[in-house]
Backbone:
């Protein structure tokens, strides 16, 4: 109904006016010649009928184009597709509609098969995973996610009936805008908060929400996993499972006081898994002093509305399980976690094997600094690497990665050899 349609209608109007003018001129010239007048009027009538036929055909053509446009728009919003065409049109427009309808059917079958495969993969995972459509409908949900979300969560439900909209919506926008999974603290319908990773699956394919935590009531169908033994001195650094740990407390100088934030990032040797990370603010039950906010460069309301330590500990414990915990001043960080566990009356915390990156870095580069940014800069780590959902822990992880590569260059292959290089490592 754009320029082509208007041009065609204008042309028909001009042709109709021309026929009317010629008919009037013929009547004026005919005079008393009645037979000539009837012949001229008959020709003019045929011209008008022909113009009307062309107008009707054009109107139908543009009406069908408008229908096809509406069908394509509906398909883009998952509301259908090209339907049957009256009379089984065999012209170019009809053949175009048939071809597009066939393509849409093929795309839907392929999308259904892909969705079935994605649902099968999600079902096989122990971690809670939910796949959402662009409109927020749950299209795949594995049993752990159904247990975690609760409230009879099921495929086809609106996810915003189960999870608060603002946090999830922001994470979806970040994932699509940044081109990589985004971290979020999602609020369940009953007020419980869970860390999550949100990944964009592509244009029109929706998003996946992965929760790096298992619901306590969930038990896999197979036998429960045995306890994972911690890394030993003979394990190779290049394949060692590690977790970079960063803990902020209300006494930054000593690492004492209450815990106010925890960040972790997973590594395998020198490989950093930036998407397997989280940064959790913790409510210490007291306001933050100016010295604390200045030391960590955080706003005074950074922990306002955050979860208490008992509510986030299960996630943290799972992140540390079976890994070598690395960090600068990592023993003080683990001690702070142990104090919080004991103060909250939780199950006793057995600190996992750890490796302090500070002494190790200074053993390799005596001129290296003390804090994480200085140490990272000494080993060529781009300080912009500390960007994302867990900035402090990410920079620590990148430092650990650089140290592993440097150690391997020097022929230091095992954890025991790395510890021997820095004898003051606690």
Residues:
């Amino acid at each position: 109904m754009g320029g082509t349609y208007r041009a065609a209608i204008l042309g028909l109007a001009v042709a109709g006016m021309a026929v009317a003018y010629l008919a009037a001129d013929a009547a004026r010239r005919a005079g008393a010649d009645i037979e000539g007048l009837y012949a001229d009027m008959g020709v003019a009538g045929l011209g008008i009928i022909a113009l009307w036929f062309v107008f009707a055909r054009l109107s139908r053509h543009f009406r069908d184009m408008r229908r096809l446009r509406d069908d394509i728009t509906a398909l883009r919003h998952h509301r259908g597709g090209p339907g049957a065409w009256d009379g089984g049109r065999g012209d170019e427009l009809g053949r175009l509609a048939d071809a597009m309808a066939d393509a849409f059917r093929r795309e839907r079958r392929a999308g259904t098969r892909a969705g079935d495969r994605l649902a099968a993969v999600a079902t096989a995972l122990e971690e809670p995973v939910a796949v959402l459509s662009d409109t927020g409908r749950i299209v795949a949900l594995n049993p752990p996610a159904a247990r975690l979300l609760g409230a009879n969560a099921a495929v086809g439900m609106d996810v915003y009936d189960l999870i608060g909209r603002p946090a999830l919506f922001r994470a979806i926008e970040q994932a699509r805008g940044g081109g990589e999974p985004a971290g979020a603290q999602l609020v369940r319908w009953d007020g419980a908060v869970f860390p999550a990773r949100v990944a964009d699956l592509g244009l029109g394919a929706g998003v996946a929400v992965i929760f790096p935590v298992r619901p306590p009531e969930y038990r896999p169908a197979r036998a429960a996993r045995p306890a994972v033994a911690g890394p030993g001195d003979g394990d190779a650094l290049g394949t060692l499972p590690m977790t970079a740990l960063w803990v902020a407390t209300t006494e930054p100088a000593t690492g004492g006081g209450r815990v106010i934030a925890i960040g972790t990032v997973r590594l395998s040797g020198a490989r950093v898994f930036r998407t397997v990370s989280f940064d959790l603010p913790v409510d210490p039950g007291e306001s933050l002093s100016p010295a604390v906010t200045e030391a960590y460069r955080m706003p005074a309301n950074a922990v306002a509305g955050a979860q208490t330590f008992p509510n986030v500990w299960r996630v943290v414990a799972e992140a540390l399980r079976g890994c070598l915990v690395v960090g600068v001043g990592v023993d003080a960080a683990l001690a702070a976690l142990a104090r919080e566990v004991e103060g909250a009356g939780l199950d006793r915390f057995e600190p996992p094997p750890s490796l302090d990156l500070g002494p190790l870095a200074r053993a390799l580069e005596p001129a290296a600094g003390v804090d994480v940014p200085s140490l990272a800069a000494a080993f060529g780590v781009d300080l912009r690497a500390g960007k994302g959902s867990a900035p402090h822990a990410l920079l620590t992880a990148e430092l650990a990665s650089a140290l592993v590569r440097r150690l391997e260059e020097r022929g230091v292959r095992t954890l025991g050899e790395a510890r021997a290089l820095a004898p003051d490592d606690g």
